[in-house]
Write a structure and sequence with these properties.
This protein is an alpha/beta fold. The protein is built from 12 helices and 19 strands. It has 2 domains: 210 residues, Alpha-Beta Complex (Spore Coat Polysaccharide Biosynthesis Protein SpsA, Chain A), CATH 3.90.550.10; 157 residues, 2-Layer Sandwich (60s Ribosomal Protein L30, Chain: A), CATH 3.30.1330.50. 29% of the residues lie in helices and 30% in strands.
Length: 375
C-alpha cells in the first residue's frame, strides 16, 4: 500500500465539543487523533496536518510514525499543503480524512480504496432517511424532499494527480475535497458510509463514541465476608429480616451478618475499605445500630459515584435457623434498602455439613458478591 498516502486533517481549533481542541481530547484512554491515526495503520503513508501551534505536541505523540505538516488558514489550504508535500513518483492514490472521525472502520477504508479502481474519486456517504424540514424561530416552515440527499463522510479517496490539480485550480473555501473534485469535473463515486463513523463535534458526540467503544463502561466486582457468634437470645437479624431462633447473634450493631457481608462487598467494589472504616466499632453511637444504616450508606456512595448495582448474591452459612422460608423476604428487603429491582438480589443458604464453627452452631457466616456498573 506504499503507493497510497493518507492525509488526516486536524489543523482546526474546533472547541464546540467543549474544552481543548477536539482532536486532542481523550477518548477511551487515547487522544482522538491518536485513534484516527491508528485506524489507518497499514493503509498507506500517513500525513497528519496540524495547527502550527500543535506541532510540538504532534512530534511528541507521533514521532517517527507519521509525517507532520503545518496546516493553513482554511481546511482547503491545509489539504493543499499536504498534497504539495507528496512525491508524485511514489504516490498514486490519496485518502483524505477528518482527524475527528476516529471510529472509521477498516472495511470502510477498503471500500473507498476499491472504488478508486474504477473512479478517479470516491467517498462514503449515507442516504438521508429522516424527514427533512426547514425551520426558523424554532418553528417548522416547510418540508425538504430527501430524495437523492446524502450525508457526506470521510475518508474521501482520489487519484493523486487529479486531486492535486483540482486543488491547485480551486479558489478555496470548499467544505470538503469532494467539492474540490466536482469543481474540477471529476466523477465521484459514492460508497456506503457507516453510522458509527461520526465526526466528533458536540459534547454528546464524545459520550456516544465512548459508548460505541465500550470503553466508558466501568464494571466492578466486590466481595464481602462476615461472621458473628451466637449468644443467648430469641431471634437473629439476617438480611434485614427478624428470624425467631433459640439464640441471638453477638455484635456491636444488630449483628446482621448477611447485610454486613453485602455492605462490605459494595465498599470493596468501590475500593472504600469496609464497614469498620466508615462506622468505627470504637464509636459508641453505632452500638446496637440497625445494619440498614451501613448498607444505605454504601449503596449511596456507589450511587454518588455513578454506579448502579447490577446484581448481588448473598450466601448465609449455618445449620439453623432454616433460611429457605425467609430467603425471598430477605432478598426483597436488601433490594428495598439498596434501591434496586428485587430480581437483581439473591439470598441463599447452605449448611457446612456440621463441620467447623458453623457446623457446631457456634455462629453464622455470610459471603456476598456484588457487581457495580457505571455506563
Ligand atoms: Mg459484622
Amino acid at each position: 500500500m506504499t503507493d497510497t498516502a493518507i492525509i488526516i486533517v486536524a489543523a482546526g481549533r474546533g472547541t464546540r465539543a467543549g474544552g481543548e481542541p477536539k482532536q486532542w481530547r481523550m477518548l477511551g484512554g487515547q487522544s482522538v487523533l491518536g485513534r484516527t491515526v491508528a485506524a489507518f495503520q497499514g493503509a498507506g503513508r500517513v500525513i497528519v496536518v496540524l495547527h502550527p501551534d500543535d506541532m510540538v505536541r504532534g512530534i511528541t505523540e507521533f514521532a517517527g510514525k507519521v509525517t507532520l505538516i503545518a496546516g493553513g488558514e482554511t481546511r482547503s489550504q491545509s489539504v493543499r499543503n499536504a498534497l504539495e508535500s507528496i512525491d508524485p513518483n511514489e504516490i498514486s492514490r490519496v485518502l483524505i480524512h477528518d482527524g475527528a472521525r476516529p471510529l472509521v472502520s477498516p472495511a470502510l477504508i477498503t471500500r473507498v480504496r476499491a472504488a478508486l479502481e474504477t473512479a478517479p474519486a470516491a467517498a462514503p456517504a449515507i442516504g438521508v432517511t429522516d424527514a427533512l424540514w426547514t425551520g426558523a424561530d424554532a418553528k417548522v416552515t416547510g418540508l425538504q424532499p430527501r430524495d437523492g440527499l446524502f450525508r457526506a463522510q470521510t475518508p474521501q479517496g482520489f487519484h493523486f494527480p487529479a486531486i492535486l490539480d483540482a486543488h491547485r485550480a480551486h479558489p478555496g473555501g470548499a467544505a470538503d475535497d469532494v467539492e474540490v473534485a466536482l469543481a474540477a469535473g471529476l466523477d465521484v463515486a459514492i460508497v456506503e458510509g457507516e453510522d458509527d463513523n461520526i465526526k466528533l463535534t458536540w459534547p454528546g458526540d464524545f459520550a456516544r463514541a465512548e459508548r460505541m467503544l465500550g470503553t466508558g463502561m466501568d464494571i466492578r466486582t466486590g466481595n464481602g465476608y462476615d461472621v458473628h457468634a451466637f449468644t443467648d437470645g430469641d431471634h437473629v437479624m439476617l438480611c434485614g429480616v427478624r428470624v425467631p431462633h433459640s439464640k441471638a447473634l453477638l455484635g456491636h450493631s444488630d449483628a446482621d451478618v448477611g447485610m454486613h457481608a453485602l455492605t462490605d462487598a459494595i465498599y470493596g467494589a468501590l475500593a472504600e475499605g469496609d464497614i469498620g472504616r466508615h462506622f468505627p466499632p470504637s464509636d459508641p453511637k453505632w452500638k446496637g445500630a440497625a445494619s440498614h444504616i451501613f448498607l444505605t450508606h454504601a449503596a449511596g456512595l456507589a450511587r454518588d459515584r455513578g454506579y448502579t448495582i447490577s446484581n448481588a448474591d448473598v450466601t448465609l452459612v449455618c445449620e439453623r435457623p432454616k433460611i429457605g422460608p425467609h430467603a425471598i423476604e430477605m432478598a426483597a428487603e436488601l433490594a428495598r434498602i439498596t434501591g434496586v429491582e428485587p430480581d437483581r438480589i439473591s439470598v441463599k443458604a447452605t449448611t457446612s455439613e456440621r463441620l467447623g464453627f458453623t457446623g457446631r452452631e457456634e455462629g453464622i457466616a455470610a459471603i456476598a458478591t456484588i457487581t457495580l456498573v457505571k455506563p
